[in-house]
Amino acid sequence: MRLEDYWGVGPKTSERLRESIGVEAAVAAIEDADIRALADAGLPRGRAVRILRRANGADGIETLGTRDARDVYDDLLSLASEYALTRHAADRVRVMTPLSTIDERETRLDRVLDARDAWLGLDEAAREAITSAFDAYDREDGTDRAAVETALELRDAGLRGGTFAALDDLDDDALQAAAEALGTIDADGRVAAGADEELDRLRQRRDAVAELETNALDVLESIRERGVRDFEEFRAAFVEYVASEADVRRGRVEAAVAGDAHDEADFAATSLRALRSELDDEVDEREATVAAQLEESIETAREGVETAVSAVSDIALDLSLGRFAAAHDLTRPRLVDDGLAVVGARNLTLSGEVQPVTYAIGDHDLDGPSAGDASAPRADASTRRESPQTPPTGDRVAVLTGANSGGKTTLLETLAQVALLAAMGLPVPASDAAVGRFDTIVFHRRHASFNAGVLESTLKSIVPPLSTGERTLMLVDEFEAITEPGRAADLLNGLVDLTVDQEALGVYVTHLADDLSPLPPEARIDGIFAEGLTEDLALEVDYQPRFGTVGKSTPEFIVSRLVANARDRAERRGFEALAAAVGEEAVQRTLSDAQWSND
């Protein structure tokens, strides 16, 4: 295959790869998702990642319908790669893309969850042994020898079956011999020092003679200093000197000396050259013999070596993803034909204590947490009575309304995370989830630029995927940020109708629920509510949406906090004027409640 046949590899990139590592090595790096090899060849790392994603999952990349969806995808893979056991495993994680079929997703889920369970089932000593083995593998750049030694380390740690099943039938003795051979012979058949004592001795003698040959004038000077009086004495002294300095038998040196030299310098140079040539031949002969023996050891274990090389790479990837799943308590989603429903879902980019939420669009059979469940959304008893915990089923569209800083955008992002992880065959951050098949995932964050260019670019980004008639998931934040509220309400009504007509699924965030025309029966309005201020005047929000209820932005809570935190009288008077505008009684009641909680 030509390099130019790969997406993103133009003439300049192709020439750079060809000159740096050659066509064959470049194709192998692309097919093996080897980011490091391409980066070492001079490609910017980000470009290498993009090329490899397209090369190994072009159809999956097309699932990412917008820049914001691609950002969520990048964030997820960056987070997952932090748990990689090797550099190559991290590279393989970074180039993962959504998978085309349910079977592919189920297969990867099986592997990742088996690896998660395997990792969680190990004691600390076993985990350290695995980490140490893969660290050594990385230090040796993942060579065949490093892979074989890592496989032996994993077997020595007693790891069998499941994630490690590919290593179960390996012959330890044959692998050990192969590892030693792989460490002492290169691809050109050159044998490393230490592989054979006789070869080392021959090389040492050859190198010593070569050193004397290089410094023949010094040899002459050393011999003349012995006070030789004629050529015969010079000849005898030369033989003695070379035999002593190079640890070569006198008879061997005698046999190599020149018989027709013109002078002492010619005699020394010709004799040393002849002796070094003879020793070269001996080294080559012995090296060929040793190389053949080493190759035989490798060939005897060839199948085991190939198994180890492949298995260690796959185990590193599976365990890396398993560690990611274990660290974030990810669970298996049910892959269904239609719908997106989550119970106890968490956003992976949030830190600290996170309130899990339950939400659904489309058909599903999930139950929300009961009122007595410890994982139920935090709210008082009256709120729970008003807000059913079982998500409605069958609605194609939800219009999400509610409090400022109420987590509406975070909920959209959480749904995008769940949908993308499931599409890649990875477990999701929810206690239960059912995720349908989506050809395109459209996620659009709020952009606070009020101009016609932003409106046009936004519509061009989100409407075409919706118009294809394929399975599309729409997760769109506040339209009112990009055009005036009245027109934004009109556009939102149009999007809701189009989503229903195209049999897509959508969640649209807005503060304009009261301005919308009657929604189609396949759509509903949900709300998130602020419940007051905490004792330190932080906004207290129940992030669990109330289904079929319009949420309120409750600005009196924000104004109450501003009044309480005013730096001086003038500033306080200004905020009190706003309090009068939004409802002074509500503001005073909020301040009183916060003060009572603080007391």
Automatic annotation (TrEMBL):
GO biological process, one term: mismatch repair
Keyword ATP-binding attributed: yes
Region (Disordered): 362-396
One MF annotation (Gene Ontology) recorded for this entry: mismatched DNA binding
Matching Gene3D superfamilies: P-loop containing nucleotide triphosphate hydrolases (3.40.50.300)
Keywords: ATP-binding, DNA-binding, Nucleotide-binding
Keyword DNA-binding set for record: yes
Residue stretches making up the DNA mismatch repair proteins mutS family domain: 395-571
Entry protein name: MutS domain V
Native species: Halobellus clavatus
